[in-house]
Amino acid sequence: MNDWFLRGDYGAAPTNYATLLIAILLAFACGHAVAWVYMFTHTGLSYSRSYVTTLILMPVIVALVMMILANNLVLAFGLMAIFAMVRFRSILRDTLDTAYVLAVIVIGLACGTLKFTSAVIGTAATTAMMFYFWSTSFGTRHRYDLIVNIHWVRTAAELAELRQLLSRHCRDTQFASQRSGEGYGGIDLSCRLLLRDPERSHELMQELGALNGVSRLSSLQAADESEL
Known about the structure:
alpha+beta; Alpha-Beta Plaits; 8 helices
């Protein structure tokens, strides 16, 4: 059984399985590095967890493609024709869906070129990674627990009292926006808060409501904000 598996590739060029495994692991590690940088440096509202996992899957899939093609120009043109057909027939809205389609195309290409062992190794590697992303929720960013909107009627120079109250309850505070209240005077503040104890958020809201200078107060749980 082991002898059949290790000699399972019947393609024109022999496969070095140690090199194939190293290529997959290196692509997986390098993709992780790029994904971590994206997670930590991304700003704005377009953050997507599926895009993060795709950044890791794509190098692995491309490495498998290059190992399977093995400098075969005919196979390369055939692969281009397959990708063009898939792109013409369907439009995928999720980047992770694209990665799944590319994965099964490469596995089919491995089987069609008689590289059976490479197909098995590639399938095992990609499915293990997909289960890893699913079970660990890799790529999810938990940057804050609560969004609080405050109308501050005192002067901006007196915000220190508000900041001191927030620092007692929060590990991190980000003032997302600060603008003068239109027609009402004062300042409208929008704060993103990472709480020390999310279970005690009601205590923070009670203290904010009782603070001199807060005339209007509203909050939104981070769970209510959809990830794009």
